[in-house]
Amino acid sequence: MAKIYYDVDADLARLNGKKIAVMGYGSQGHAHSLNLKESGCDVVVGLYEGSKSWEVARNDGLDVTTAETAAAQADVIMMLVPDQTQKELYERSIRPHLRSGKTLMFAHGFNIHHHQIVPSGDIDVSMIAPKGPGHIVRSTYQAGQGVPCLMAIRQDASGQATDNALAYAKGLGATRAGVLTTTFAEETETDNFGEQAVLCGGLEGLIKAGFETLVEAGYQPELAYFEVCHELKLIVDLIYEGGLARMRYSVSDTAEYGDYVAGAIIHDQVKPIFGKLLNDIQTGTFARTWILENQAGRPNFLAQREIEARHPIEKVGAELRSMMSWLRRGDH
Q1: How far apart are CA 248 and CA 227, in angstroms?
Q2: What pLDDT does residue 327 have?
Q3: Beta 149-155 vs 124-130: how paired, if at all?
Q4: Which of 47, 75, 96, 215 has the fewest CB atoms within 10 Å distance of its CB?
């Protein structure tokens, strides 16, 4: 079982006199920067020249400078840019400014675990990974609460890496909810597996297969969308609030019985596939493929994105969602 730390275990004063550079100002970057600043920390946001986030961060009351300058100034550097851009940012803007006593932090372990970033041995390397999107990290902090986080220590050159990481987590508000210990390997592999097998790949595959099965059998696409996609939020919300038991308690007995009958069939069919996915992640096969894809300019990734955008479920879904005035409109 994971060891869990709370407010009482963390000393925010450990960050007194330390400058924290947050690299990136996206979903996680804005939440980390603002939460830490409001916790009394000295924060600077590091961005590339011309970033559209530059004025956004500045208007939010934050100090903003180039990634190079931020790295040079900082005692603690948190990497919150996408996985595929971290190595280039590290080599160009961060590595030249690392020195003994500094701390390099991550919110996801991919680049460290797969040796895309290999820091020198005289710095601390740690991870604080909130288990929630940035807007939730931000809103729960503002409400006096917090989002649970994972913590991992890769290098403890100072002998104080754990205490310093916990201080950072407290600045985010995470110790209000709990900070669970893990390793860079465990976080990376379970995160990649969850995304592929269930949260993104698995869920997307089930939705499309259900939609296609109903439409090919002659049912109206609109009804197919409602039954296999739209109503998913109800089920996910119930599971989020109280686990599978809450979902089964809340749905009809007919739905619960269907869960037991069909769930067992699907479970037995997909579990061997999940084993293959996990093996590819553990052996580094998936990471090598993704790294090479990015090095080649992402041709397969971008082609597949275009193919998926043309799936009939997207057209039907867009038409039906236009009827729902209560929905918050996203990017698509």
Answers
A1: 17
A2: 86
A3: antiparallel
A4: 96
Give the CA distances from residue 147 to residues 150, 178, 182, in Å, rounded to whole numbers and listed in that order. 10, 8, 16
Region label for 40, one of left (φ > 0), alpha (ψ between -120 and 50) or beta (otherwise): left
| Active site members | 108
Strand partners, 152: 127
Contact between 26 and 49 (Cβ < 8 Å) = no
pLDDT band, residue 181 (cuts 50/70/90) = very high
Specify the amino acid at residue 10: A
Structure tokens at 42: 């000295």
Find, among 143, 106, 147, the residue nearest to 123 by Cα. Answer: 106
Q: In what order do the strands lie in the sheet with 4-5?
A: 4-5, 179-181, 149-155, 124-130, 103-106, 76-79, 19-23, 42-47, 63-66
Q: What is the total residue count of the chain? A: 332
Taking only the tens place, the pLDDT of each residue in 14-31 is: 999 999 999 999 999 999
Kindly state the average pLDDT of the residues 186-215.
Answer: 97
